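Students often ask why we bother predicting the structure of a whole assembly rather than each chain alone. The short answer is interfaces. A chain on its own may look different once its partners are present, and contacts between molecules only exist in the joint model. In this exercise we take two input lines together and write out one structure for the complete complex. Read the inputs first and try to guess which parts will touch.
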Amino acid sequence: MESTVVDMAANDAAYDALTPDLQSLVIDQTEHQGQVALTCKTEHQRQLLEHFRNEQGYDYLVDVTAMDHLGMDRPERFEVVYVLRRIGASGHQFRLHVWLSEDQAVLPSVFDLWDSARWGERETHDMFGIVFQGNPDLRRLLMPEDYPAFPLLKDYPLKGAGERRQFTRVVPRGDQMVEEEPEDYPTSIGRGMHTPEYEEEVRRDSKPR
Amino acid sequence: MGLESLIGGEGFLTTTVNSIVNWGRKNALWPMPFGTACCAIEMMATFSGRYDISRFGAEVVRFSPRQADLLIVSGRISLKMMPVLQKIYRQMPEPKWVISMGACASCGGVFDTYTLIQGVDQFMPVDVYVPGCPPRPESLLDALFEIQKLVGQERLDSGKHGS
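Now the answer. The structure tokens for the assembled complex follow.
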């Protein structure tokens, strides 16, 4: 039976198997706890991924995701991450990180190389607003279709910009259902948390007795 | 034994229409489960043998809102789910009652984030709240008793029953 265990010792293999001119496109190479990460610039992403897929046989794109480095001292704001894996006897995995600028948050899609990229790119678009050019289906995946923002951006507030209060209140009146303005009940932790009454309560309760 | 002994030998009793309708309704509530999270597991336990909600006449679980008069919202309600919940509430015929089961349905629970409704009571009426994360089946049974009390207080000429 073929082993599918990830071969940690062979982790540098992906880089070592690159031709010298492709190696020069890799601007950084790090290793943390046996996990190798290669980094490249936006314009070389497609070229490197094509090489890993077609020449080195990385047949499984585990995930496509991204990070937002807003306000941190990094080359660009976004870092898109491709987790590549080779299934079979020589199986091992590594990540390709791609720096992506805020002004031009567009990358070529790789859905033609791996089918799983369709979903990964769609989710990354849903959460970060990064456009994967060529992906035929970049509709919202997790968020509602009319959601106005990309919630995993660091400058988007954790509690949203009021989207969760957007509904009308459905109330039965006689034999009809009518829609009213939403009511604010003090039952909610989230809604009652920062009222003066609540702050006072916390102050009172936290005094030693 | 039972009802016969109360009726006596004559075979009739006197009461008001209001009382007998309420008596019938509160002992035959048909719940519509709206289970979206771990509270639903406790709700299922309440419906099944060990806690056995059928002892109190509410075992006819309807997965069609058109046939139900008690909506049990048990679990987190997200932005995407709230319109669905409202639609289901609209589809229920009058009179209807709502239990908001657990911390998430009642106030968002620990999930104070962009995508989670901070209490379904903002957007639809709730009759009874059940605290807990998740509440035990006994708590849900207690909520059912509270609903039964509310049903018992209904008046047929009130707005709840339509025209």
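Check your guess against this: Chain A has a mean pLDDT of 82.
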